[in-house]
Amino acid sequence: MRPVERYEEVEIDNEGPYRYRREAVVDVGGERTEMARRFVNVVWLLVVIAEIFIWLRVALRLIGANPANAFANFIYVLTDILLLPFLTIAGAPGAQGFVLDIPAIIGALVYLLFGWVVTKLLWLLLKPARRRVERRVDEVE
Q1: What is d(CA 127, CA 130) in angstroms, rounded to the nearest whole number?
Q2: Tens of pLDDT along 119-137?
Q3: Dihedral (C-alpha) 119, 124, 127, 129: value to the nearest 10 degrees?
Q4: Nearest CA to 124 among 30, 2, 40?
């Protein structure tokens, strides 16, 4: 059975002193598109939040921020969780306390690529194919 893109609902009430007819056109494809859009927005929001924290870490390590500082320590601990798979992928060259955090940069790029792939996959799975629906009405004179 093919998925229904649109369907009409007709409700008729003939009981009681009043009679009414209510018609509504439900756009199933539009509802699925909106659901896909919301999932994609949630994925991008999570990716952007992760990217902000990772790039904050890169900036703090680049300027030689004190790890004993509460804010810097918070960023380092939080991003250590995000960057766990990447921390041993490459060295982090540094001089006089200033460190270029290459694993964090690689992790940021991987998370960005992962977010892009997930959103494309969500669009492919959830967004319905566009279909043109026509209705022909013949008038008899």
Answers
A1: 9
A2: 999 988 887 665 555 555 5
A3: 150
A4: 40
From the number of C-beta atoms within 10 Å of its C-beta (0-12, 13-18, 19+), residue 123 rates as middle
- Which DSSP symbol is given to 84? G
Cβ within 8 Å of residue 110, ≥6 positions away: 86
List, in order, residues 6 or more apart from 19 with CB less than 8 Å away: 12, 13
Confidence (pTM): 0.70
Kindly write down the DSSP assignment for every residue of 4-56, as one continuous string.
Answer: PSEEEEEEEE-SSS--EEEEEEEEHHHHHHHHHHHHHHHHHHHHHHHHHHHHH
The rounded Cα 57 to chain-centroid distance in angstroms is 23
Q: What is the three-class DSSP state of 95?
A: strand
